[in-house]
């Protein structure tokens, strides 16, 4: 179904791009990750983890196709990708025991690509969530329904954290703060679980870069900490409060810098400032180059979006701008993004 396939040159709209993770390498690992126990790294232990966690992953059917989901709470709360449910308000949910029941989409957030589905079933096997980021090299297990093959598991490692996929690749907003895995990705895995060697949820699979773009095993997942924050807000309020700056940005490239005679080679150029926005009130102008946000050095637009993920509406932050060669710190009180 809908799957977040990211290609450098061509791709569908951002909401139709999805990912899941998995690895076809069946050889045993040379050494377990430092944060995983030796027992958990053994083949039999992995088999036990998969067997225990398969019931916590579901298949979500919409009128346009299918994707995956993760049982978040035992009382029938399931989390998936927003692009999996799309505009649907009702879906069908298939469980590992072969049953299929209706589900209601109770909340969705396009910015983080997460959605909540509720079903009328209790005593479900909810996942255990690990909110701290995994370390590079840790075992990664991806569970989902690639191409409709339900209860599929693939195995790889955590390849990196805090990854960004630029807007030029997604065709929309950049995807930020992602976990990278070397698991091969297929349509239908989106919304499924990325687990560690102990079977704890470390991410929800979201996107991959296909081989046609020259990539080999580049998959991405939304970190569990983001999943918890967004899901809990959707359950409580039906929506997510995102901080609002009020600017339209473009990444500085050497070519752009040369063409415009700029004295910076990295940063985020302010193309437009929304009147009355926090940025306008703070004095940010068109043509300014944002080079810092709080303690973060800004080299691309993605860095600004990633920094905004760490703050909340109403927070007072410091934005560092380069204006005609002079660097200035501007205090800004963030607003709330209107949807």
From TrEMBL:
Q: Which Pfam families match?
A: PDZ_2, Trypsin_2
Read off the InterPro entries from this record.
Chloro_Bact_Ser_Proteases, PDZ, PDZ_sf, Peptidase_S1_PA, Peptidase_S1_PA_chymotrypsin, Peptidase_S1C
Which keywords accompany this UniProt record? Hydrolase, Protease, Signal
Q: Which organism is it from?
A: Pseudosporangium ferrugineum
Write down the PROSITE patterns for this protein, in alphabetical order.
Answer: PDZ, PROKAR_LIPOPROTEIN
Superkingdom field: Bacteria
MF terms from GO for this chain are:
serine-type endopeptidase activity
One Gene Ontology BP term is: proteolysis
Q: Which protein family is it in?
A: Belongs to the peptidase S1C family.
What does UniProt give as the signal peptide span?
A: 1-21
For this protein, the record's Gene3D superfamilies field holds:
2.30.42.10, Trypsin-like serine proteases
Q: Where is each PDZ domain found?
A: 249-325
For the keyword Ribonucleoprotein, the answer is no
Taxonomy-wise, where does this protein's organism fall, top ranks first? Bacteria, Bacillati, Actinomycetota, Actinomycetes, Micromonosporales
Q: What is this protein called?
A: S1-C subfamily serine protease
């Amino acid at each position: 179904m809908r799957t977040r396939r990211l290609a450098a040159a061509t791709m569908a709209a951002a909401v139709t791009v999805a990912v899941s993770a998995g690895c076809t390498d069946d050889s045993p690992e040379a050494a377990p990750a430092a944060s995983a126990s030796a027992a958990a790294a053994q083949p039999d232990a992995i088999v036990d983890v998969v067997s225990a966690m398969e019931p916590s992953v579901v298949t979500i059917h919409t009128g346009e196709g299918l994707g995956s989901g993760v049982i978040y709470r035992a009382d029938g709360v399931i989390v998936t990708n927003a692009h999996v449910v799309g505009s649907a308000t009702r879906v069908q949910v298939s469980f590992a025991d072969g049953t299929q029941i209706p589900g209601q989409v109770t909340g969705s957030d396009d910015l983080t690509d997460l959605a909540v589905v509720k079903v009328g079933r209790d005593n479900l096997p909810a996942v255990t969530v690990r909110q701290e980021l995994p370390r590079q090299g840790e075992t990664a297990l991806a569970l989902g329904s690639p191409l409709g093959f339900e209860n599929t598991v693939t195995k790889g490692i955590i390849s990196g954290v805090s990854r960004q996929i630029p807007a030029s690749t997604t065709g929309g907003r950049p995807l930020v703060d992602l976990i990278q895995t070397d698991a091969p990705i297929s349509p239908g895995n989106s919304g499924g679980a990325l687990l560690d060697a102990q079977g704890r949820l470390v991410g929800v699979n979201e996107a991959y870069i296909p081989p046609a773009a020259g990539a080999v095993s580049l998959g991405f997942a939304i970190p569990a900490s983001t999943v918890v924050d967004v899901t809990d807000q959707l359950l409580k309020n039906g929506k997510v409060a995102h901080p609002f700056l009020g600017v339209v940005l473009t990444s500085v490239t050497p070519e752009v810098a040369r063409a415009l005679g700029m004295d910076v080679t990295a940063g985020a150029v302010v193309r437009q400032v929304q009147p009355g926005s926090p940025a306008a009130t703070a004095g940010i102008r068109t043509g300014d180059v944002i080079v810092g946000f709080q303690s973060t050095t800004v080299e691309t637009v993605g860095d600004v979006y990633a920094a905004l993920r760490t703050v909340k509406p109403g927070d007072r932050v410091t934005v560092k701008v380069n204006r005609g060669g002079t660097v200035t710190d501007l205090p800004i009180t963030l607003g709330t993004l209107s949807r």
